[in-house]
Amino acid sequence: MLAIILGILKWIGIVILILLGIILTLLLLVLLVPIRYRAEGSYYGKLKGRASVSWLLSILSLQASYEEEAEVCVRVFGIRIGGPEKKRKRRKKRRAGKKAEVGNAADVEKPGPEKFKPVETEPAAVPAAPEMKTDTPEMETAAPKTESAAPETESAAPKQPKPAKKKQWQFENPLKKIRVTFRRFCDKLKALKDKKEAILNFIKNEENRKTFRLLKKQVVRLLKHILPRTIQGKVRFGFDDPYTTGQVLTYLSPFYGLYAKKLQLIPVFEEAILEGEVNLKGHIRIGTILVIGIRVLFDQNFRYLWKKWREA
């Protein structure tokens, strides 16, 4: 009896260890296997682009493209889930429905065979009877007029409900949004100048300096990890006001070392323009992002400032 119980416990322990091993393996895969992304796009009056994200040797992948219409396709173990095939089927159904509507309308409009109509002959004129004069006053009897509104019946074929048209996403010229965002950023910088003394006192605090150095180090590490490892392309940009173009170049100049050999920026001071093409690829590891977040959250002064900021 004791041997049976020990054998059952042994197998239960083996099953538990196997489950724990599977869970640990999946956890390590999620944390350590990077998510790879790749994108390429161009804008010369019209936006065209493709992007793909894959994980674990493309076991799970997502592909998206935009050229007049946006298309998204998800694959699991190479099996397509949704995507262009479904859209093609929907288009075929819509076209078939439109053809059926056109056919029904044509059948209704076709005239039927003309039937023989007998010629109507006017009856012979009958001589009017002489009027009878009486001594009684003439009584005028007016028959009440009754309006009979007969509903007009029109023979029409039953109309089939038209398929609801989906609103397509239209790409707008981004120059306006960039200009508005840049001006808002400049306004915020001017507002910070008014609070210069409070900001200086905050920065001079030694604990805040340590937290700032920690945040700076971790943010730089995060950006290096997330940003594309390889990027190539060229962009021509310009605004109506040459001064705005110069300001944008001034704010981009500190990052010249990052994009100088990879991305070519061509400023245009004579007209408002934005066009170019970019190809990039990189990867993101969830474990690295988690480690960066834990290092920041373990800082006591950061938690205090975060709590104070939320209460404000």
Q: How would you describe this protein?
A:
The two termini are 68 Å apart. The chain has nine helices and eight strands. Among the domains are: 73 residues, no CATH class; 106 residues, no CATH class. Strands 5-4-3-2-1-8-6-7 form an eight-stranded mixed β-sheet, covered by helices on one side. It is an alpha+beta fold. Helices cover 47% and strands 20% of the residues. It is flat, with a radius of gyration of 40 Å. Helix 5 runs antiparallel to helix 8.
Question: Which structural category fits the helices and strands?
Answer: alpha+beta
The major beta sheet can be summarized as: 8 strands, mixed
Q: Beta fraction of the residues?
A: 15-25%
Shape: flat
- N/C terminus separation: 68 Å
Number of helices: 9
Rg computed from alpha carbons, rounded to a whole number of angstroms: 40 Å
Widest β-sheet, arrangement of strands: 5-4-3-2-1-8-6-7
As residue ranges, the low-confidence spans are 112-157
Q: How many strand segments?
A: 8
How would you spell out the order of helices and strands? HEEEEEHHHHEHHEEHH
Determine the fraction of residues in helical runs and give it as a percent range. Answer: 40-55%
Write down the overall mean pLDDT: 76
